Structure formats: structure tokens, C-alpha cells
């Protein structure tokens, strides 16, 4: 199964990738790859392979739940960035900005 998840900016796609990548699949019967699209840096690509349809469904349902949490945190913690991207120069000196 191939999933393409678009984000408003490449930075948000990268944040989502980093947040989702830390949790490995719970079953060795499921393989997942996460990456940023090489043709569009605003798109997160998730590819799943599983030995059974049930395992695939369970894994992908978990992925959607985790993605929703990531998106909710992005929206709740940084409304300006999610709604209207702020140039990085305007964020110089902001605590926690790397």
C-alpha cells in the first residue's frame, strides 16, 4: 500500500516524518517505509507491506491515528506555521527553534 500525504510546507512534512519514524512497527509481519517525496518535498510517502490483509489494515489504522496526533500537535502548538507560514528570519531568537 502506498500513501501520499501532502503538507503545506516541506518543513512540516519533515517534522511529521521525524515524529512518525521513531515508532517501529509492532509486528515483524509488517514492513513500513517513510520518506519525503523526491519530486515534491511537501509530500510524505508511506509504503506498507504485510503478510495478511488484516495485518495491513491494523498497521495502516495505527498510522492514521498517529498522523492525526502529529497534525493536532502541529496545529495546537504552532498555529501560525500551520495556517500561514512565517519566514524563518522572523523567528530568529524564538525559544526552541533549531
Outline the structure in words.
With about 100 residues, this protein is an alpha+beta fold. It is built from 3 helices and 3 strands; from the N terminus they run βαββαα. Strands 1-3-2 form a 3-stranded antiparallel β-sheet. Helix 1 (about 10-20) crosses helix 2 (about 55-75). The chain is globular and about 45 Å long. The N and C termini lie far apart (about 35 Å). The relative contact order is 0.19.
Q: Uncertain regions: pLDDT < 50 for 5+ in a row? A: none
For the CA atoms, what is the radius of gyration?
15 Å
Number of strands: 3
Number of helices: 3
Helix content, binned percent? 40-55%
Distance between the termini: 34 Å
What would you say about this model in short?
With 98 residues, the chain is an alpha+beta fold. It has helices at 10-21, 53-77, 79-83; strands spanning 2-6, 30-36, 43-50.
Amino acid at each position: 500500500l502506498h500513501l501520499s500525504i501532502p503538507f503545506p510546507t516541506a518543513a512540516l512534512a519533515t517534522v511529521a516524518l521525524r515524529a512518525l519514524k521513531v515508532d517501529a512497527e509492532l509486528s515483524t509481519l509488517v514492513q513500513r517505509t517513510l520518506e519525503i517525496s523526491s519530486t515534491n518535498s511537501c509530500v510524505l510517502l508511506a509504503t506498507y507491506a504485510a503478510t495478511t490483509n488484516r495485518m495491513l489494515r491494523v498497521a495502516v489504522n495505527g498510522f492514521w491515528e498517529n498522523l492525526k496526533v502529529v497534525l493536532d500537535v502541529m496545529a495546537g502548538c504552532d498555529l501560525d506555521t500551520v495556517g500561514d507560514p512565517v519566514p524563518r528570519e522572523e523567528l530568529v531568537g524564538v525559544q526552541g527553534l533549531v
